[in-house]
Amino acid sequence: MPQRTFSILKPDAVRAGNSAAILAEIAKAGFKIVAIKKQSISKTQAEGFYYVHKERSFFGELTTFMSSGPIILLVLEKDNAIADLRKLMGATNPANAEEGTIRKMFAASISENAIHGSDAEETAAFEIGYWFAGYELL
What is the pLDDT of residues 4-34, one digit of tens each? Predict the structure, then answer.
């Protein structure tokens, strides 16, 4: 049965003009795009989304970065979507990412790493609901 996951093409990827190439990699890996939108978000929206990291030292930097320019929000679907997207994304630090992964190809650094993907079903459910109303999910 298909599983849904959530992803963000981060401001660095959008700014660099890599959105289409990253979306092509996602499609090539067999993901169906259920919903997609491009928008700019406020620091407050970023803080709400990343609230689980609010006590971490990188929280301020992360939320400032995520609100620094347009992002592309995605709901993706396929069998084993969460694990498959995590593998396709590659390691958080692009220096440690495997060849052929999105972060190896498109990320500049550990803090500007091109893409976000849900890490569990519960996380995906929260993240999808945070950015998409039910009627937006085709």
Answer: 999 999 999 999 999 999 999 999 999 999 9
Q: 85-103 burial by CB neighbour count: b if 16+ within 10 A, else e?
A: bbebbbbeebeebeeebbb
Question: Is the separation of the CB atoms in 38 and 71 below 8 Å?
Answer: yes
Catalytic residue among 4, 10, 103, 116: 116
Q: How far apart are CA 109 and CA 123, in angstroms?
A: 24
Which superfamily does CATH assign the domain made up of 3-136 to? Nucleoside diphosphate kinase-like domain (3.30.70.141)
Active site residue 53: no
The domain segmentation of the chain, as residue ranges, is 3-136
Neighbours of 119 (CB within 10 A): 14
Within 8 A by CB and 6+ apart from 117, the residues are 5, 6, 7, 82, 85, 86, 89
